[in-house]
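Page 37, top half.
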Amino acid sequence: MDSIALYEQKLHQTINTILGIDGVLEKTHYSNTQIEILHAWLVGFFINDYEKYLSKNALPFDRRNLQITTQLVSEGMSNISVEVLNQYKTFYTKYLELYQFVPVSYGITQKINTQLRLGLNIEILFDQFEVGHFFILSKMLSSIKKAFYEITIIQNAWSVPTFKENIDNYYFEQNGPEYDLEEAIEQMAKTALTQIGL
C-alpha cells in the first residue's frame, strides 16, 4: 500500500471509527455542549497528526489537498472543504489546553505540551463557550486580542452572532487596551472572575 492509499485509509478511520463524531463535521450550527467542543478539537488533532504524517512522506501540498477532498466526497461529505478541515486544525493548535478534557478512551498517547495562557483559564472557557466562539478566536493571530475577546465574551454573555458582529465593528480596536497590554489583560481577567463569582 503506497503512502497516499495509507493516508486515505487513515482519514476514513478517523472520520468514521476513531472519532465516532456522528456527523459533527456536517453541522453548520453548534449548541453549547462540551461534547461538541471536544469532538471539534479531536478532528483538529487527528487532521494535524495526519498532515504531519504526509509531510514526512513528502507528499506535495496540492496532491495532499486533492486526496483529502476526494476522500471526503467519497464519504458523502462533499460540502466539507480542505479549508474547513484546516479550521478544525487551527482550533486544535490554538487551544492545546483542551487536551486535559479529552477522555482517556480516545487513546491519545502522545504528550501535548502547553504553555501558561494569558487571561482566563481554559476551564472557564470550556464551561462558558460554544464551539463557534472557539473557531472564531482560533483565527486570531494576536494573543492579546484573543485573550481580550475571551474575557469580553464572558463578561457580556455574547452569543456567536453577536461576537461576529462586534468583530466586524472593530470592537477591540475601539475598546481594547492601548498600553501595558499583558498587564491590562490580566487585570481584565481578575475583574471578569469577580463578576462571574469565581
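Page 37, bottom half:
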Amino acid sequence: MAFHGNIGQFQNPELLVEVVKELNKRGETFHCIAIGSGSKELVIKKSEVENLEFRGRLNNEELAKVIRTCHVGLSFRTDDEISARSIPVRVSEYIGVGIPTVLTPKSEGGELLDSYQVGKAFDNDEVSAICDFIQQLKYNQDLYQFYKNNAIRIRSNFSREAGAELFVRKMKQCLNVEETVKHSSM
C-alpha cells in the first residue's frame, strides 16, 4: 500500500498508523510505504510500527516507480471543510497507475471514487471498516480486478495532460465571457 504526498496540516498520518496497527493485529501480511514530507511526518517516523516504512521525500521519477509497485493507494485527510471539498491529487495518481484507492473523509473525492467505482471513502473513525475493505481487496481477486480495471479504463481522464487541457479550456471560457461582458458594456 502507498500513502504519499505532503504530510502536512490536512493529512491524517495518525489514521495511517492506526490502520497499519489494526492490520498487524489481524495477522495480515502486507507492506505499507509512506512517502513525503511535511509538518506531520514525525507521526509516521516515530511510530515504529511493523510493516510501515517511511521513505521521506522522493523525486517524481522514484515516487512513480514505487507507487507502480503498490496494490492499494491510501489518502487519509483530516475532518475539515477543505478535505470535505477536495479531490486529493494523490487520488488522481492512484487512478493513473490503476490501483484502488481508500480515502478519508467522505468527500467530493469519495463521490468520485464511488461514481467511477475505483475505490471507497470512509469516515476517519472507521478504522475497522477501512481494514475490512483492504482485506476484501486482498482476498477477493474479482473485487480487486473490478476496481483496478475501472481505474485503468478511466485513467487517461486523470492524467496531467488532461488536467492541463481542462485548465486551458476553462481559461478560454473565462476570457471569452470577460470579452463578451466588456463588449456588451460599451
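Margin note: Residues 160-184 form the longest helix (25 residues).
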